Amino acid sequence: MIPERLRKNFEPALLELLDKDAVVIDIDKGEVMLDQGAFITHIPIVIDGRLKVSQLDGDGNELFLYFVEPLESCVMTYTCSEGEARSKIRAIAEMDSQVLLIPKEKLEVLMGFRSWRNFVMNAYRDRFVELIDALNSIAFTQLDERLIKYLKEKSAGKKEISITHQEIAEDLNSSREVISRLLKHLETQGKVILGRNRIQLQVRGK
Question: Which part of the chain has CATH 1.10.10.10?
């Protein structure tokens, strides 16, 4: 059964198809929904929770790409679903999440619906904007500013974040030592309060 909050985005005929062929699954925090190198079998849409999408290099280092929030989908699964292409990304549940899975074989049929085409185009547009922001951040923004921006996005409006310095370093493609120094500096500025594997964010806004 497609949740009501998602149903309003699609036309009746498309909803009938999704009710028939799609499934809703629960994913525990930290569970890998899609691993890099795996074959794509379904197109995911997040209903509740959040997925973290990243990519691993040849040495196993993780590069954070973007978050998939409620009522959003992972556009990389569209590009990898054609033929027998393997996934270029890894998607992990940031928290306990609920995800709608649509068989990839239905993608061609789905593209016949205007509401689905709009959904896909909006997803590509949003990811493209995020990509430009990320490139600008890397090229023109100091790491401490990127760190604050990352913490705000990670908090999702909450005051406290449960995360290690190593996890932040991996997401920002930095080292744990550098992140620890920056966090300590931010603490002296009154922008964060550090605890054991916890960070209280004292700044608000974007």
Answer: 143-201
